[in-house]
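ok trying this again, last paste got cut off
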Amino acid sequence: MTTSFDPLPSDLASAHALILAQRELLEQEQAARIIAQSEAKVRALEVERLKLLLAKARREAFGQSSERAKLLVEQLELAIEDLEEAQGAEEAKADLAAPKAGKTRAPRGPRGPRKLPENLPVERIVEPAPCACGKCGGLRLHKLGEEVTKTLECEPRRWKIIEHVREKFTCRDCDAITETPAPSHPIPRGFAGPSLLAMVLVNKFLLHQPLNLQSTTFRREGVEIDTSTLADRVGACVVALAPILDALRRHVLAAERIHADDTTVPVLAKTKTRTGRLWVYLRDDRPFGGKTPPAAFFEYSATRHGEYPSAHLSGWAGVMQADAFAGFNELYDAKRQPGPILEAACWAHSRRKFFELAKLAKAPIAIEAVRRIDELFEIERVIAGKPPDERKAARRSQSKPLVDALETWLREQRALVSVKSDICKAINYSLNRWASFTRFLDDGHICLSNNAAERALRGAAIGRRVWKFVGSDEGGRRAAAVLSLIESCKLNDVDPQAWLAHVLAKLPDHPATRVDELLPWRWKAERTSAPKAADEIAA
């Protein structure tokens, strides 16, 4: 394209030809821009449609680990990601097709965050001002204002050394030397500050980065910290955080109803790995409108013997939601002290038995069983978060007829199939525990599934693929300790790294009788109330 500084034709015919050429070029550019924008709009509409389907699929999935929508959710997420990449490419083509000067673009919807965070520092970069007019070349320019384009940027983390200076003074009267006491350190013999220690713990147990990889990353950033040194600091941190772990355990076991589950964890042995177990016990009162903060604590054991959950829950009695693990049977014994634990079976586990047969074998009985169980979950979605009395009333009026009909139907189908068939085993799984499966009908505090505990174990299951094994039984116990802290933070929407840094800094000088003040939800409440109090003072 010619600019204002190019020589213009002197005759009418040349000028006419130039105008036609310019018009043709503009028409081509406009057509290309319109096509690219149209493609982008089509893809944007398709993305919105898929996002709606994804939202519906997630809402229909009662718990994130439900099989009913798991495959659909994953497929939709991949489809949306692919379409958004294509949409970005089409919009880039539209930008390239637009004229360089004087172009006008229709406003498009916001991409990424709708609003940049207001708490971040702002770095202002003023671009060099033009020296001459872009149209006529004149030098008499007057500033009208400015256009500001904001970009969210991230720089590599910044390392620093903090020096605590304690001045010494001598007394002129008695010649004694006086100095300020040394500040407390999160762990003895340690040079690492609380923020660094918190980052190492979160990287290892939340982001699943082994210590050797962290050491390599630190080395690239110019800081040499051996893997053995990091391991020593992790062990010391777990010891320092023991009072918080005890407080979390007391909080969970103060509930009348808990979730329980376990998962495997490979443990390094002499010639091969052996299988240990991670157990989780979780308190979450939110499904029935409870205001008590949720929390979880993990335990480790070398095997899956029933003696371990018996030891973990010694002294506690109430309702426990769990799967049909035979090792829990000791807890349900009527002679148990201080009292028997009431089993509340997980309908998601029952449904899973039928779902697998419905998916793989297309068994009509399994398909019908899944449909009937899904009706119960649909009722639960409506009453989620309601008070226990309302939940109980809704279950008695809506769920009980469905449960009674399901029991009758299951018994009829069992009489028609072989006792050795997989469908018969799935039916027996439910009917043999029918009292535990129907306990939710008479108690509004009970959930229909044990998905809460399964979600809590998901982080350990993901990490298992990365770090492959723990080094010893002691390493398993350390993992259980830190996972307890991290999962409790996640349940309360608390940043684990920020909270751990705060706790590691405060614990050495904090009174042991007031350790509950350092729990994640208390810390979150204080941080939330502090800005409000400052605003009130300012007002």
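PB: full thing came through this time. The first helix runs from residue 12 to 60.
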